[in-house]
Design goal:
Length: 371
């Protein structure tokens, strides 16, 4: 089936007791046994499993043609479960993407002797050079937040597997609609469901989608249910509701972003636009190979540096000046001042999450703010 059909139907089962086409939100924390003490369903207690969460997990696994999925209370809780599944002393290679992932590895996992190298994985030579004997995990983010760099998933996965490492792709920005990392050799896809998946800026959530139900994933499942960073049934339901329209939303985000990027590329106040949909972009060829469209996130460098970036962020009227991405409304952010110091992100950079407004209105807003 096509992805639109999977997004609508996966994990959707009419409620057997009422016939309700849209299943209820199962708030119950516990599930009954019969007179013999046998369970009456697969569920025991909601930390270990909940029907609404299971529907979401089935849906996410189906979107990627995956064997399994585990959902979490945030994207970082999902990432945490992967790192906790490693052996102490393991080495992780991490794309230079979302700063929070590297920060967690440094703040939390360095004390457990997990080593980390932050590398531009779009640079294959740099990636090769970072591989060590104890490299157990390669964490790709593609495209990265906020520099919008694209890594060749197939090439890096092949090199990582040859070195005996597992490969996770943070697929938060493109989602399964634009990029299916497991099809390109990755072992797991990771999501901040907070972003495009739920899509309306009202959910915190995370997910790990696994190609196989292997020992590594079983460990992740054990961490999910034992450590208990699970999403609430309401958040699972909201995320599922968001996924039903995901293909159409993500394509509209991408179309809008493409138009905004093309406008900004030609503006005299802008030094550069990071968006792989632009034919002149350094990452365009690799992005075209593994993505169907280029997503709703872009960043720009201002000719006037930090001051010009701050000025633009303060002058926009339709864009909201706030962190995060992937919601219906467009957001703008001076990234370096939000990241924990020392920020890697350049001071002249603004990150734009392009929403579902009409692109003409977004461009008009940027035009007046840049005037
Ligand atoms: N991965 C990426 C690419 C992100 O942008 C974010 C958050 O901004 C995360 C992971 C973390 O997700 P969460 O905020 O849901 O914990």
């Amino acid at each position: 089936m096509k992805i639109e059909t999977i997004a609508v139907h996966a994990g959707l089962e009419a409620d057997p007791t009422t016939g309700a086409v849209q299943p209820p939100i199962h708030l119950s924390t516990t599930f009954s046994r019969d007179t013999k003490g046998e369970l009456t369903s697969e569920f025991i207690y909601s930390r270990s499993g909940n029907p609404t969460r299971r529907s979401l997990e089935k849906c996410l696994a189906a979107l990627e043609g995956a064997a399994e999925c585990a959902t979490f209370s945030s994207g970082m809780a999902a990432a945490n479960a992967v790192f906790q599944a490693l052996e102490p002393g393991a080495h992780v290679i991490l794309s230079d993407g979302y700063y929070g992932t590297g920060k967690m590895l440094m703040d939390v996992f360095s004390r457990w002797t997990v080593e980390c190298s932050v590398v531009d994985t779009s640079d294959i030579a740099a990636f090769r050079g970072a591989i060590r004997k104890n490299t157990a995990l390669v964490w790709i983010e593609s495209p990265t937040n906020p520099m919008i760099r694209v890594t060749d998933l197939a090439e890096v996965s092949a090199l990582a597997h040859a070195a005996g490492a597992k490969v996770v792709c943070d697929n938060t920005v493109p989602t399964a609609i634009l990029q299916r990392p497991l099809d390109h050799g990755c072992d797991l896809s990771m999501y901040s469901a907070t972003k495009f998946l739920s899509g309306h800026g009202d959910v915190l959530g995370g997910a790990l989608v696994s190609k196989t139900n292997d020992e590594f994933f079983e460990r992740i499942r054990m961490i999910q249910t034992s450590a208990g960073a699970v999403p609430s049934p309401f958040e699972c339901w909201l995320t599922l509701r968001g996924i039903r329209t995901l293909p159409y939303r993500v394509r509209a985000h991408s179309e809008n972003a493409m138009k905004v990027a093309a406008y900004l590329e030609d503006h005299p106040a802008i030094a550069g636009v990071n968006y792989p949909g632009l034919p002149g972009n350094w990452h365009h060829a690799v992005a075209k190979k593994q993505m169907t469209m280029f997503g709703g996130l872009l960043s720009i460098h201002m000719k006037g540096g930090r001051d010009a970036a701050m000025q633009l962020a303060s002058r926009v009227r339709l864009f909201t000046r706030a962190t995060s991405l992937g919601g219906t409304e467009s957001l703008i952010e001076h990234r370096a001042s939000v990241e924990a110091p020392p920020a890697r992100t350049p001071e002249d950079l603004l990150r734009l999450s392009i929403g579902l407004e009409h692109p003409d209105d977004l461009i008009e807003d940027l035009k007046q703010a840049l005037a």
